[in-house]
Amino acid sequence: MSQDFAAAFGLGRTNRMIDMVDANGVAVVAIQPLHRRIEALEKEVARLRAGEGSPGSGGANETAGYIRHDIADERHRLRVVRV
Q: What band does 76 get if pLDDT is binned at 50, 70 and 90?
């Protein structure tokens, strides 16, 4: 596993162990875009709930449902990365 980590990220003093600082750094870098995506999706849900969906589309509730599902998926990915 440490060899795979070293090959994938090019980090570490050796490919025989994974330094915690390297693992934590990779986790933070992976979490940042997920966090930004969740924030954007939450803003979109709030906008749709406020009735700012496209006029006459009639699909704002359906779209909000998809976005809530996307948010749940992203939160699950964050939990997996944190563990």
A: confident
